[in-house]
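Appendix C reproduces, verbatim, an entry submitted by the partner laboratory led by Prof. M.T., so that reviewers can inspect both the input and the predicted structure.
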Amino acid sequence: MQESCMTDTFRYPRPPRLAVFLVAAHFCLSLGGLLLHLRIHPVVESYFHWWATGAGLINCLLLPLLFLHPRGVGFACVLNVLTVILGTLGMAYFSLHAMTWPASVLTIILHSTLPDIIILLAKLPLGQMILETMRPHGPRPEGQRGCR
């Protein structure tokens, strides 16, 4: 039997294997961060903890789907950067708010959220590598117009 041309028109290519592994690494970092946040700051304790829980849920549920879709990978990178910035600012604020002054270098390294922020910042190069893997051709030539 002859297959219809319409089925191949709207089918997206399978994501590269490297992209799948990078998205899995991003998912594991996101899920670990979300579970750690829920353990340290239970949502029922304060309504102020909801924003970070929401960002963690976006990272765990929405971003993997967007990263693996060729048209959604750009938006996923923007959301990834936004959630990393929000998490970094939030953790730095709470760390500075709870820190005992005068602070030493040892206090800043071991008793602040600096290690957590560094782990969160690891999601930025992962997102960039996913983008480069899913869109390896770079920007469009000057003469090409439109959405394709």
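Confidence is low (pLDDT under 50) at residues 1-8. Additional entries are available on request from the coordinating office.
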